[in-house]
């Protein structure tokens, strides 16, 4: 992941300049100016001792990693794995990629949950325990493989967690592969099989780390899986002769998937066109003299591409267009009262102002003209008191642009003095407003980011979901910052990190929404600079990957960077 922040003391990047280096989603460390020695990838697995049933009645289906701040020792969420099916020995596919500094102590905490619903709110799931360690402890263990007990539930043994670290190479290639299989073993009593593939790369100690899992194809012995894209770094870390093991399973609802067989290969073998592999089940092979295989797997296509980065597009001239939409509903409170979320304190920004400034001041560096549309919703407008869910903060609907973030702040304060806070809280109009502009520019030259700052429960959820699903096909992302004490469960539903959002049976093409509650970033020590830096980093962290996912799906390549500027050489005139 990339952070879009500008480190203190640096000039902001120009169009052809470099992107400032920030750590991955985690701690904002203003004290550290070190350049990381390396990036490491952490893989997480859980194991239970003996027997068919685990000693703990619940099985981890989600792992959440936290890092600890240097100053106040506060634990902050770094990232989450995917949610996996019930299985006694879960191997999480999603990795944690961290900067590793030899000279720094990085405290880590791994929390494990049994997931009971689609909610991203961890308090709504069963906590199963945790494991504490340092990044150095993992890297320094034999084979960079640390195994520790999961603790946290008194009187219960919940097995162990295995965390493996591997230094990442700098290979930027990715490969698009597609596989099919023929005559796989029948595993289901009443049907055929529900096969899927698991790809694992070998480690130096002879163990294997999972790196990809295909979808399940139901009730067939001759499946054709969808093509998938995987980085060469994830597949073999740039070592073309490294052993890759592919396991074939029959999916079972309870997570006890039946092993069909396996085969081994390597990146080099795959790239040379080795297309058919015998699926071997070692137990069957040992028992049956005439055993040939448990089916075959065939490589249908193998296409290598060089992965491009967010910075490649920025260097090539892609513009990031930033739009802000502010909630003017009555639930914010009377702006003239100190209890209002819109209160104009002469000595300090309110929550809306802080969120707007924190995010806007960073993203404005990627927009060359610094002209930003600023919208409001949920207010009654002068002179007739009509309710609007899409009005220009500067009062000019034909030209809602404000110059810079300071111009947006000025228009916001002016609007507070002229409109009447009302309701309801409708998002769809402002999302559709930005989507109309995004729909007109699909060539990769522009990308649109909408920041919605709101205080309450959304009123047009069905329409908003439909707008987001439609917008997921366009070059745009949506950031939602929730201010105030309200419950934001509905907002978290819009953030597709756990479950992809859908409307009328259609799923969003991409995850384009990032939601954060502002209250999580209120620094109890009163250091608003640090807490707003964390807010900006967390809400912007997903933008580069969302941006790249659009470009990849559309097959849009970055334009070449313009040549560096060379000043003209003055011609010296000789006086006669």
UniProtKB/TrEMBL annotation:
It comes from the Eukaryota. GO terms for molecular function: calcium-dependent phospholipid binding; metal ion binding. Residues 321-522 form the VWFA domain. Pfam families: C2 (PF00168), Copine (PF07002). Residues 1-148, 157-280 form the C2 domain. GO terms for cellular component: plasma membrane. One of its GO terms (biological process) is cellular response to calcium ion. InterPro entries: C2_dom, C2_domain_sf, C2B_Copine, Copine, Copine_C, VWF_A, vWFA_dom_sf. Keywords: Calcium, Metal-binding, Repeat. Residues 1-20 are annotated as: Disordered. Belongs to the copine family. This is CPNE8 protein. It comes from Smithornis capensis. The lineage of its organism: Eukaryota, Metazoa, Chordata, Craniata, Vertebrata. The gene is Cpne8.
């Amino acid at each position: 992941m990339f952070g879009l922040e500008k480190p203190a003391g640096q000039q902001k990047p120009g169009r052809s300049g470099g992107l400032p280096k920030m750590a991955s989603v985690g701690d904002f460390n203003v004290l550290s100016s070190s350049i990381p020695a390396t990036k490491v990838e952490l893989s997480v697995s859980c194991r239970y001792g003996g027997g068919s049933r685990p000693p703990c009645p619940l099985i981890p289906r989600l792992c959440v990693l936290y890092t600890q701040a240097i100053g106040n020792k506060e634990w902050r969420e770094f990232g989450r794995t995917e949610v996996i099916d019930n299985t006694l020995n879960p191997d999480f596919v999603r990795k944690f990629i961290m900067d590793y500094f030899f000279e720094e102590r990085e405290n880590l905490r791994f929390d494990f949950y049994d997931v009971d619903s689609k909610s991203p709110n961890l308090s709504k799931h069963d906590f199963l325990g945790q494991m504490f360690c340092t990044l150095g402890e993992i890297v320094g263990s034999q084979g960079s493989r640390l195994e520790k007990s999961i603790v946290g539930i008194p009187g219960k043994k919940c097995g162990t967690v295995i965390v493996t670290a591997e230094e990442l190479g700098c290979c930027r290639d990715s490969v698009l592969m597609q596989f099919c299989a023929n005559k796989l073993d029948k595993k289901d009593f009443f049907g055929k099989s529900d096969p899927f593939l698991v790809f694992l790369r070998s480690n130096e100690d002879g163990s294997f780390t999972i790196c990809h899992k295909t979808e399940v194809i139901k009730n067939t012995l001759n499946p054709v899986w969808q093509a998938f894209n995987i980085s060469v770094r994830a597949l073999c870390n740039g070592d073309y002769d490294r052993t890759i093991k592919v396991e074939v399973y029959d999916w079972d609802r309870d997570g006890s998937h039946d092993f069909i067989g396996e085969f081994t290969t390597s990146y080099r073998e795959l790239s040379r066109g080795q297309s058919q592999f015998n699926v071997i089940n070692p137990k069957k092979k040992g028992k049956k003299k005439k055993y040939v295989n448990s089916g075959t797997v065939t490589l249908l296509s193998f296409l290598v591409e060089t992965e491009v980065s967010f910075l490649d597009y920025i260097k090539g001239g892609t513009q990031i267009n930033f739009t802000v939409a502010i909630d003017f509903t009555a639930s914010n409170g009377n702006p003239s009262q100190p209890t209002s979320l819109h209160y104009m304190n002469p000595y300090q920004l309110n929550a809306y102002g802080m969120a707007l400034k924190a995010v806007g001041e960073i993203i404005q560096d990627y927009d060359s003209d610094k002209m930003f549309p600023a919208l409001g919703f949920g207010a009654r407008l002068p002179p007739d008191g009509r309710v609007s869910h899409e009005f220009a903060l500067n009062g000019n609907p034909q030209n809602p642009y404000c110059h810079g973030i300071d111009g947006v702040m000025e228009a916001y304060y002016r609007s507070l003095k002229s409109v009447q806070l009302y309701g309801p809280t409708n998002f769809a109009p402002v999302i559709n407003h930005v989507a109309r502009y995004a729909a007109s520019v699909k060539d990769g030259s522009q990308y649109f980011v909408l920041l919605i700052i709101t205080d309450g429960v959304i009123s047009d959820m069905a329409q908003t979901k439909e707008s987001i699903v439609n917008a997921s096909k366009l070059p745009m992302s949506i950031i939602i910052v929730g201010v105030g004490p309200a419950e934001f469960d509905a907002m978290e539903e819009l953030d597709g990190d756990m479950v992809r959002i859908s409307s009328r049976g259609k799923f969003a093409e991409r995850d384009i929404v990032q939601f954060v509650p502002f209250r999580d970033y209120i620094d109890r020590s009163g250091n608003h600079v640090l807490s707003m830096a964390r807010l900006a980093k967390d809400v912007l962290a997903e933008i580069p990957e969302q941006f790249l996912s659009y470009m990849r799906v559309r097959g849009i390549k970055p334009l070449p960077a313009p040549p560096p500027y060379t000043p003209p050489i003055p011609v010296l005139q000789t006086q006669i």
